[in-house]
Amino acid sequence: MRNNPYPLLLTPGPLTTAPETRAAMQRDFGSRDEAFIALTRRVRERLTTLARGADSHVSVPLQGSGTYAVEATLGTLLDRSRKTLVLVNGAYGKRIERLCRLIGAPTTIYETAEDVPPDPAELGQRLRADPSVADVILVHCETTSGILNPLESIASVVAAEGRGLIVDAMSSFGAIPIDLRRTPIDALIASSNKCLEAVPGLGFAVIRRARLEASAGKCHSLSLDLHAQWQGFETNGQWRFTPPTHVLAALDAALDGLDREGGVAGRFARYRENCQILIRGLGSLGARALLPETLQAPIIVTFRMPSDTAFQFEKFYAALGQRGYLIYPGKLTGVDSFRVGCIGHVHAADMAGFVDAARDVMRTLRIKSLAP
Amino acid sequence: MRNNPYPLLLTPGPLTTAPETRAAMQRDFGSRDEAFIALTRRVRERLTTLARGADSHVSVPLQGSGTYAVEATLGTLLDRSRKTLVLVNGAYGKRIERLCRLIGAPTTIYETAEDVPPDPAELGQRLRADPSVADVILVHCETTSGILNPLESIASVVAAEGRGLIVDAMSSFGAIPIDLRRTPIDALIASSNKCLEAVPGLGFAVIRRARLEASAGKCHSLSLDLHAQWQGFETNGQWRFTPPTHVLAALDAALDGLDREGGVAGRFARYRENCQILIRGLGSLGARALLPETLQAPIIVTFRMPSDTAFQFEKFYAALGQRGYLIYPGKLTGVDSFRVGCIGHVHAADMAGFVDAARDVMRTLRIKSLAP
Question: Which 3-state string (H, E, C) describes A273-337?
Answer without folding.
Answer: HHHHHHHHHHHHCCCCECCCCCCECCCEEEEECCCCCCCCHHHHHHHHHHCCEEEECCCCCCCCE
